Amino acid sequence: MSARDLLRANDTRFAEVAATLSEDEWASPSLCAQWTNHEVLAHLVVGYSCGFGAFTAEMLRRRGFDPANTALAQSRAAGRSPDDLLDDFATLTDQPSGLGRYFPRRLLVGDHVTHELDILCALGRDPQIPADVLIAVLNTQVAIPNPFVPAYRNSRGLRLVATDVDWAHGEHGPRVEGRAAELVSVLGNRAKMLPRLRGEGVAQLAARVLSRRTVG
Prior knowledge:
InterPro entries: DinB/YfiT-like, Maleyloyr_isom, MDMPI_metal-binding. Helix content is 59%, strand content 5%. By secondary structure, it is mainly alpha-helical.
Protein backbone atom coordinates (compact mmCIF):
# COMPACT_ATOMS: atom_id res chain seq x y z
CA MET A 1 0.00 0.00 0.00
CA SER A 2 1.34 3.45 -0.88
CA ALA A 3 1.94 6.01 1.85
CA ARG A 4 -0.94 8.08 0.45
CA ASP A 5 -3.37 5.16 0.61
CA LEU A 6 -2.13 4.17 4.07
CA LEU A 7 -2.70 7.70 5.34
CA ARG A 8 -6.19 7.91 3.87
CA ALA A 9 -7.22 4.51 5.25
CA ASN A 10 -5.82 5.32 8.69
CA ASP A 11 -7.50 8.73 8.78
CA THR A 12 -10.83 7.13 7.93
CA ARG A 13 -10.40 4.54 10.68
CA PHE A 14 -9.38 7.22 13.20
CA ALA A 15 -12.43 9.33 12.37
CA GLU A 16 -14.68 6.36 13.10
CA VAL A 17 -13.01 5.84 16.48
CA ALA A 18 -13.07 9.55 17.31
CA ALA A 19 -16.80 9.73 16.58
CA THR A 20 -17.44 7.48 19.60
CA LEU A 21 -15.98 9.94 22.14
CA SER A 22 -18.34 11.70 24.51
CA GLU A 23 -18.45 15.42 25.23
CA ASP A 24 -16.65 14.87 28.54
CA GLU A 25 -13.94 12.79 26.84
CA TRP A 26 -13.27 15.53 24.30
CA ALA A 27 -12.90 18.04 27.14
CA SER A 28 -10.41 15.81 29.01
CA PRO A 29 -6.64 16.42 28.99
CA SER A 30 -4.62 14.58 26.34
CA LEU A 31 -1.03 13.36 26.58
CA CYS A 32 0.00 16.58 24.82
CA ALA A 33 1.06 19.21 27.32
CA GLN A 34 -1.56 21.98 27.62
CA TRP A 35 -3.99 20.42 25.11
CA THR A 36 -7.40 18.83 25.62
CA ASN A 37 -8.48 16.01 23.34
CA HIS A 38 -10.68 18.54 21.54
CA GLU A 39 -7.61 20.67 20.86
CA VAL A 40 -5.63 17.67 19.59
CA LEU A 41 -8.38 17.06 17.04
CA ALA A 42 -8.30 20.75 16.12
CA HIS A 43 -4.53 20.48 15.66
CA LEU A 44 -4.99 17.66 13.13
CA VAL A 45 -7.38 19.84 11.16
CA VAL A 46 -5.01 22.82 11.34
CA GLY A 47 -2.17 20.60 10.13
CA TYR A 48 -4.16 19.62 7.08
CA SER A 49 -5.43 23.10 6.24
CA CYS A 50 -3.24 25.94 7.53
CA GLY A 51 -1.21 27.75 4.90
CA PHE A 52 2.53 28.37 5.21
CA GLY A 53 2.07 32.14 5.37
CA ALA A 54 -0.54 31.95 8.12
CA PHE A 55 1.58 29.60 10.21
CA THR A 56 4.72 31.71 9.75
CA ALA A 57 2.81 34.83 10.80
CA GLU A 58 1.58 33.03 13.92
CA MET A 59 5.13 31.92 14.74
CA LEU A 60 6.33 35.52 14.51
CA ARG A 61 3.42 36.73 16.61
CA ARG A 62 3.92 34.04 19.27
CA ARG A 63 7.73 33.97 19.04
CA GLY A 64 8.17 30.26 18.45
CA PHE A 65 6.87 27.08 16.85
CA ASP A 66 5.31 25.48 19.93
CA PRO A 67 3.43 28.62 21.06
CA ALA A 68 2.11 29.10 17.52
CA ASN A 69 1.09 25.46 17.27
CA THR A 70 -0.77 25.69 20.57
CA ALA A 71 -2.47 28.97 19.73
CA LEU A 72 -3.74 27.71 16.38
CA ALA A 73 -5.09 24.49 17.89
CA GLN A 74 -6.80 26.30 20.73
CA SER A 75 -8.28 28.93 18.44
CA ARG A 76 -9.67 26.33 16.04
CA ALA A 77 -11.12 24.29 18.90
CA ALA A 78 -12.78 27.38 20.36
CA GLY A 79 -14.62 27.98 17.10
CA ARG A 80 -15.48 24.43 16.08
CA SER A 81 -17.13 21.61 18.03
CA PRO A 82 -15.65 18.10 17.88
CA ASP A 83 -18.41 17.07 15.46
CA ASP A 84 -17.64 20.06 13.23
CA LEU A 85 -13.93 19.25 13.34
CA LEU A 86 -14.58 15.63 12.42
CA ASP A 87 -16.53 16.83 9.39
CA ASP A 88 -13.62 19.11 8.48
CA PHE A 89 -11.15 16.27 8.95
CA ALA A 90 -13.16 13.93 6.72
CA THR A 91 -13.16 16.51 3.93
CA LEU A 92 -9.46 17.23 4.31
CA THR A 93 -8.61 13.53 4.29
CA ASP A 94 -9.63 13.47 0.63
CA GLN A 95 -8.66 17.04 -0.25
CA PRO A 96 -5.88 18.38 2.00
CA SER A 97 -5.08 22.06 1.66
CA GLY A 98 -2.38 24.34 2.99
CA LEU A 99 0.66 22.62 4.44
CA GLY A 100 -1.22 19.31 4.38
CA ARG A 101 -0.76 19.12 0.61
CA TYR A 102 3.02 19.13 0.87
CA PHE A 103 4.00 17.38 4.09
CA PRO A 104 5.37 13.86 3.37
CA ARG A 105 2.61 11.28 3.74
CA ARG A 106 4.84 8.84 5.66
CA LEU A 107 5.46 11.49 8.31
CA LEU A 108 1.78 12.47 8.44
CA VAL A 109 0.78 8.86 9.21
CA GLY A 110 3.12 8.93 12.19
CA ASP A 111 1.87 12.32 13.35
CA HIS A 112 -1.77 11.24 13.16
CA VAL A 113 -1.16 7.92 14.91
CA THR A 114 0.79 9.65 17.68
CA HIS A 115 -2.06 12.08 18.23
CA GLU A 116 -4.63 9.29 18.23
CA LEU A 117 -2.60 7.71 21.02
CA ASP A 118 -2.48 11.08 22.80
CA ILE A 119 -6.26 10.97 22.94
CA LEU A 120 -6.99 7.30 23.58
CA CYS A 121 -4.20 6.55 26.05
CA ALA A 122 -5.08 9.62 28.11
CA LEU A 123 -8.63 8.27 28.35
CA GLY A 124 -7.47 4.76 29.30
CA ARG A 125 -8.82 3.34 26.05
CA ASP A 126 -6.97 0.48 24.41
CA PRO A 127 -6.03 1.64 20.90
CA GLN A 128 -6.94 -0.75 18.09
CA ILE A 129 -4.52 0.54 15.47
CA PRO A 130 -3.68 -2.13 12.85
CA ALA A 131 -0.27 -3.77 13.16
CA ASP A 132 0.78 -2.78 9.64
CA VAL A 133 0.13 0.88 10.44
CA LEU A 134 2.14 0.76 13.67
CA ILE A 135 5.02 -1.02 11.94
CA ALA A 136 5.03 1.55 9.14
CA VAL A 137 5.11 4.36 11.69
CA LEU A 138 7.94 2.79 13.70
CA ASN A 139 9.99 2.11 10.57
CA THR A 140 9.63 5.74 9.54
CA GLN A 141 10.31 7.12 13.01
CA VAL A 142 13.65 5.37 13.45
CA ALA A 143 14.83 6.00 9.86
CA ILE A 144 13.88 9.60 9.01
CA PRO A 145 14.80 12.66 11.10
CA ASN A 146 11.69 14.76 11.69
CA PRO A 147 11.98 18.35 12.96
CA PHE A 148 8.63 18.03 14.74
CA VAL A 149 8.95 14.56 16.31
CA PRO A 150 12.27 13.61 18.00
CA ALA A 151 11.79 9.86 17.53
CA TYR A 152 14.89 9.47 15.34
CA ARG A 153 17.08 11.02 18.02
CA ASN A 154 15.34 9.15 20.82
CA SER A 155 15.91 5.75 19.19
CA ARG A 156 19.66 6.09 18.54
CA GLY A 157 21.83 3.36 20.03
CA LEU A 158 18.95 1.42 21.54
CA ARG A 159 17.63 -2.06 20.81
CA LEU A 160 13.88 -1.57 20.46
CA VAL A 161 11.55 -4.58 20.48
CA ALA A 162 7.77 -4.59 20.08
CA THR A 163 6.11 -7.31 22.14
CA ASP A 164 2.81 -7.49 20.25
CA VAL A 165 3.88 -7.20 16.58
CA ASP A 166 6.80 -8.48 14.53
CA TRP A 167 9.07 -5.44 14.78
CA ALA A 168 12.51 -4.69 16.20
CA HIS A 169 15.18 -2.09 15.57
CA GLY A 170 18.87 -2.00 16.37
CA GLU A 171 21.20 -4.95 16.72
CA HIS A 172 23.10 -3.67 19.72
CA GLY A 173 22.59 -1.38 22.69
CA PRO A 174 20.39 -1.39 25.79
CA ARG A 175 17.07 -3.12 25.19
CA VAL A 176 13.68 -1.41 25.41
CA GLU A 177 10.52 -3.51 25.13
CA GLY A 178 6.88 -2.53 24.90
CA ARG A 179 3.79 -2.75 22.77
CA ALA A 180 4.16 -1.09 19.38
CA ALA A 181 1.74 1.72 20.23
CA GLU A 182 3.63 2.42 23.45
CA LEU A 183 6.92 2.63 21.57
CA VAL A 184 5.41 5.03 19.04
CA SER A 185 4.13 7.25 21.83
CA VAL A 186 7.35 7.35 23.86
CA LEU A 187 9.56 7.85 20.82
CA GLY A 188 7.33 10.83 20.09
CA ASN A 189 8.27 12.25 23.52
CA ARG A 190 5.18 11.29 25.50
CA ALA A 191 6.74 10.88 28.94
CA LYS A 192 3.54 9.60 30.56
CA MET A 193 3.89 6.37 28.59
CA LEU A 194 7.41 5.61 29.85
CA PRO A 195 6.23 3.41 32.79
CA ARG A 196 4.74 0.97 30.28
CA LEU A 197 8.14 0.11 28.80
CA ARG A 198 10.64 -2.43 30.13
CA GLY A 199 14.34 -3.14 29.77
CA GLU A 200 17.73 -1.79 30.74
CA GLY A 201 17.51 0.92 28.06
CA VAL A 202 14.39 2.60 29.47
CA ALA A 203 16.40 4.91 31.75
CA GLN A 204 18.46 6.16 28.79
CA LEU A 205 15.34 6.65 26.68
CA ALA A 206 13.62 8.44 29.56
CA ALA A 207 16.53 10.87 29.91
CA ARG A 208 16.20 11.80 26.25
CA VAL A 209 12.42 12.19 26.39
CA LEU A 210 12.49 14.29 29.55
CA SER A 211 15.25 16.53 28.20
CA ARG A 212 13.00 17.85 25.45
CA ARG A 213 9.33 17.98 26.22
CA THR A 214 7.12 18.29 23.16
CA VAL A 215 3.92 20.30 22.85
CA GLY A 216 1.70 18.66 20.25
